[in-house]
Amino acid sequence: MDWDKLRIFHIVAEAGSFTRAMGALNLSQSAISRQIAALESELKVTLFHRHARGLKLTEQGRLLLDTTRDINARLGAAESRILESRTHPSGPMRVTTTVGFGSIWLSPRIREFLDLYPDIELTLVLDDRQLDLAMGEADIAIRMAPPVQPNLIQRRLLTVRFYVYAAQSYLKKFGKPERPEELDKHHLITFGDSLTRPSLPNARWLLELAAAKPRRPVLTTNSVYGVFRAVQCGIGLAALPDYLGQSDPDLVRVLPGLEGHKTEAYFVYPREIRNARRLTAFRDFLIGKVAES
Q1: Number of domains forming the structure of the chain
Q2: What is the dihedral of CA 283, 284, 290, 292, to 10 degrees?
Q3: Which of 213, 237, 251, 281 could form a disulfide with 89 if both were Cys (CB 3.0 to 4.6 A apart)?
Q4: Boundary-marking domain end, from 35, 63, 85
C-alpha cells in the first residue's frame, strides 16, 4: 500500500471530513477525494460512508485506522529516539506513581532532577490506580507491585517495608504499647475497602497480631496516604510503609521488633521508549536517590 495514500486516509479519518482535513494536508478537497478513491480501489473495499454531516468509517475503515495509528505511533517513537540520540535529555515525560509515594518520597526530590535536566518537561500523575502505559496514559510508572500488562520493561527500584507508627500526641494520651498483646487496648487504623475489596494482608496482620479477641479498626480507608494522615492527626496506630513513617519526625515507631509484609517498588516503562535519553536520565537519578536513602 502507498504510504502517501495511507497518510491521507489517516488524517481524513481522524478529522471526520474532507473539509477539515484540507488544512492539515494542504490539498484541495477534490485531490483528497481522489486519493481516498484510489486507495479504496486498490484495496477493493469501501473505507468511508459519505453523508451530509461528514464521513463515517466502515468496518474495513476502522481496521485500517487501527493500523495507521500504530504506524504513526511507531514513527513518532522512532523520530523521538533519533532526535534524542543526537541531543541531551529533553522533551515531555509523564510519570505516574501512587499518591503516597509520589507526594512524600518523589516530589521533594524532583527539584534536583529538574535542575540537572531543565529541558525535560515533567508531569507527575499521582493515582493509586495502575494507568495504562500501552495506551499512553503515562510514559513511566513507579509501582508497588510487578506490572500485569505485557510488553513492559520493569526494574526493581527499592524494597518497601511496613512498621507500626503512632503520633506523639496519640502516645501521650493513650500510652505506648510495649507488647503486641497491648494492641487490644489501642485504636487501630487499617488500609482497605470493605465495600469493594478485602483489606490487604498487612492490615489484617495488625488486627490479628497476638489478639486475645477479635480487634476492630477505629478507621479503615482505601488510601495509604489517608492512613498516613490519620496517624499524623493522632487518631490511632497503623502499619505504614517506611518511606511514609520516616518522613515525619513527629511519628514514633512502636513495637520496633515487629515488621509487617514488605513489597517491591518497580520502575516500569514500555519497550518502545527504552532508549529515550530522558527515561534513562530519570531512571539513573532515582537509582542514585534510593542508594542515598
Answers
A1: 3
A2: -160
A3: 281
A4: 85
Are 177 and 256 found together in one domain? yes
pLDDT by residue for the chain (293 residues), tens only, comes to 788 899 999 999 988 888 888 988 888 989 999 999 999 999 999 999 988 777 899 999 999 999 999 888 888 887 776 666 556 788 899 999 999 999 999 999 999 999 999 999 999 999 988 888 888 899 999 998 887 777 899 999 999 999 999 999 999 999 999 999 999 999 999 987 644 444 455 557 888 887 778 889 999 988 899 999 999 999 999 999 999 999 999 999 999 988 888 889 999 999 888 888 899 999 999 999 999 87
Q: 229 and 170 in one domain?
A: yes
H and E: helices and strands count for the chain = 11, 11
Residue 75: give the domain boundaries: 3-85
This model's pTM is above 0.85: no
Q: What CATH number is associated with residue 51?
A: 1.10.10.10
Task: Kindly state whether residues 189 and 276 are assigned to the same domain.
Answer: no
3-state SS, one letter per residue, for 218-237? CEEECCHHHHHHHHHCCCCE
